[in-house]
C-alpha cells in the first residue's frame, strides 16, 4: 500500500513538473521557451553572439558588461527616483546627458554597439543592457551563468551625474555610494570580479586596452591576486593615469592597478573578503552571480518581471589553472591588509609575463576581431 501510494505521488509530481516545464514554441520557429515573453531573448542572444560578440570574451563583451553597472548604479535610496531609476536603460536612452559624467568615459562604444538593436528587437532599453551583459559574460571561461529577469520599463529621465564611482575616489566615498544603491562593501568586492575581464581605454593618454590583470579574457581570480602586488613606487605613472592608479609590477608589460581596486583590497571592511577570493574560483563565481542578480534589477519591481535566465547561454568552462604569481613577480610583493593565511601559489616561469591583446592569445591588438 505504501508502495502504491508512492507510485501515485510520483505520477502526480511528474505531471505537475511537466506542467511547470511545458515549453511554448517561439514565433521564429527555432526556439522554445518556458514563457512566451522569453522568446525574443532567445533570438537576441543568437544575434548578439553572431553579430556583436563573435561568441568571444573580447572587447565588445567587456564593454557590454561595464555598461550594466553604469546603467544600474544610476539610483539613490537617499535622493529618490528623480536622480535615476536604476537598471532602466537610461544610459542608452539619454546617452547625451549621461555621457557628460566623466565616470562614463568610454561607455559610448557599448552604447553605439547596442542601441541599434532597440529598433530590431521588441525589448526595452533596460532589458537590452542587462541581457547583453549576461550574454557577454557567458563567453568568458570560468564565468557563472547570470540570472536575467525581463520586464524593465523604459527610463523616463536620465540619471543624475556623479552617481558612478571613479577610480580616484576615496574608498569610503565609494562604499557610501554603493550602499546608497543597496550594495554592501563585500558585495562590491564580488562585483569587482568583473575587473578580471577588463581593460582601460581612457585612463592613460594615447594607450588603449590597458589590462587590469594578466589574463583579461578569462573569468579567473588573477585580478584579486595582482591588485595585491606592489609596483615600483619610484617609476612615475604614465601620462594621464596618475590619480586613477597605483604602481604595479607589470607596468612594463602594459598592466595597470586601479587606485579604487587597491584601496578596496586594503580596507578593513573588505581586505579579508578580497583575499578570500584569491584562487577561489567557486567564490568569485557565486559572489559575482548573486551580486549581478541584484545589480541587474536595481530600482525595479521584480514581482512584475519574468525569469528568462534560460536565454542566457551556458558559459564557457573555466580554464583548468590555479592562480599564479605572474612571471617576474612573487609572494615578496604581496601587500596584505588581512591576517588570514594567504594561499600558497606557484610563480609562472620566465623573466616576464606576456599579456595577450586578443582572446585567441594574439599579442597584436590590431589582429583582434572584436
Ligand atoms: C568602485 C567601482 C568601480 C570603479 C571605480 C570602476 C572603474 C573602472 C574604470 C576606470 C575602468 C576603465 C574604463 C576605461 O578607461 O575604458 C573600468 C573598466 C571596467 N569595469 Fe569597472 N569600475 C567599478 C566597478 C565595476 C563594476 C561593478 C563592474 C561590473 C559589474 C565593472 C565592470 C568593468 C568592466 C567589464 C570594465 C572593462 C571595460 C573594457 O574592457 O572595455 N566595473 N572600471
Automatic annotation (TrEMBL):
Keyword hit for Disulfide bond: yes
Residues that hold Ca(2+) 1 according to the record: 71, 86, 88, 90
Enzyme Commission number, as recorded: 1.11.1.-
Top EC group: oxidoreductase
Residue sites binding Ca(2+) 2 per the record: 196, 213, 215, 220
Keyword set, alphabetical order: Calcium, Disulfide bond, Glycoprotein, Heme, Iron, Metal-binding, Oxidoreductase, Peroxidase, Signal
Keyword Transmembrane helix: no
Binding residues for heme b: 195
Example GO molecular function: heme binding
Site (Transition state stabilizer): 66
Region described as Disordered: spans on this chain: 348-370
InterPro entries: Ccp1-like, Haem_peroxidase, Haem_peroxidase_sf, Ligninase, Ligninase_C, Peroxidases_AS, Peroxidases_heam-ligand_BS
Names of required cofactors: heme b; Ca(2+)
Active site positions: 70 (proton acceptor)
Signal peptide residue numbers: 1-18
Cofactor note: Binds 1 heme b (iron(II)-protoporphyrin IX) group per subunit. Binds 2 calcium ions per subunit.
Disulfide bonds: 26-39, 38-308, 57-140, 272-338
Domain Plant heme peroxidase family profile: 65-312
Example GO biological process: hydrogen peroxide catabolic process
Family under the similarity heading: Belongs to the peroxidase family. Ligninase subfamily.
Stored PANTHER family: CATALASE-PEROXIDASE, THYLAKOID LUMENAL 29 KDA PROTEIN, CHLOROPLASTIC-RELATED
Name of the protein described by the UniProt record: Peroxidase
Amino acid at each position: 500500500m505504501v508502495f502504491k501510494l508512492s507510485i501515485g505521488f510520483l505520477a502526480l509530481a511528474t505531471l505537475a513538473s511537466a506542467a511547470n516545464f511545458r515549453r511554448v514554441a517561439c514565433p521564429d520557429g527555432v526556439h522554445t521557451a518556458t514563457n512566451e515573453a522569453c522568446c525574443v531573448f532567445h533570438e537576441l542572444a543568437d544575434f548578439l553572439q553572431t553579430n556583436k560578440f563573435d561568441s568571444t570574451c573580447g572587447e565588445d563583451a567587456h564593454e557590454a558588461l561595464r555598461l550594466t553597472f553604469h546603467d544600474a548604479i544610476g539610483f539613490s535610496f537617499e535622493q529618490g527616483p528623480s536622480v535615476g531609476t536604476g537598471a532602466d536603460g537610461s544610459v542608452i536612452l539619454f546617452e547625451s546627458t549621461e555621457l557628460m559624467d566623466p565616470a562614463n568615459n568610454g561607455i559610448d562604444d557599448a552604447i553605439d554597439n547596442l542601441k541599434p538593436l532597440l529598433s530590431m528587437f521588441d525589448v526595452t532599453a533596460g532589458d537590452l543592457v542587462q541581457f547583453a551583459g549576461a550574454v557577454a559574460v557567458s563567453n568568458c571561461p570560468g564565468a557563472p551563468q547570470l540570472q536575467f529577469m525581463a520586464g524593465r520599463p523604459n527610463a523616463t529621465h536620465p540619471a543624475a551625474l556623479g552617481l558612478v564611482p571613479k577610480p580616484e575616489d576615496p574608498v569610503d566615498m565609494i562604499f557610501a555610494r554603493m550602499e546608497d544603491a543597496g550594495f554592501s562593501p563585500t558585495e562590491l568586492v564580488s562585483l569587482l570580479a568583473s575587473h578580471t575581464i577588463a581593460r582601460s581605454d581612457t585612463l592613460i593618454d594615447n594607450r588603449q586596452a590597458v589590462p587590469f590583470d594578466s589574463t583579461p579574457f578569462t573569468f579567473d581570480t588573477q585580478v584579486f591576486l595582482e591588485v595585491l602586488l606592489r609596483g615600483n613606487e619610484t617609476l612615475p605613472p604614465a601620462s594621464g593615469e596618475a590619480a586613477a592608479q597605483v604602481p604595479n609590477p607589470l607596468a612594463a608589460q602594459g598592466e595597470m592597478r586601479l587606485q579604487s581596486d587597491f584601496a578596496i583590497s586594503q580596507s578593513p571592511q573588505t581586505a579579508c573578503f578580497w583575499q578570500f577570493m584569491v584562487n577561489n574560483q567557486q567564490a568569485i563565481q557565486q559572489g559575482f552571480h548573486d551580486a549581478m542578480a541584484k545589480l541587474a534589477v536595481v530600482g525595479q519591481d521584480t514581482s512584475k518581471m519574468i525569469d528568462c535566465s534560460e536565454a542566457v547561454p551556458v558559459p564557457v568552462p573555466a580554464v583548468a589553472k590555479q592562480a599564479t604569481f605572474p612571471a617576474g613577480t612573487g609572494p615578496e610583493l604581496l601587500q596584505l591588509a588581512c591576517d588570514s593565511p594567504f594561499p600558497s601559489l606557484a610563480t609562472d616561469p620566465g623573466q616576464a609575463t606576456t599579456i595577450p591583446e586578443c582572446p585567441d592569445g594574439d599579442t597584436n591588438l590590431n589582429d583582434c576581431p572584436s
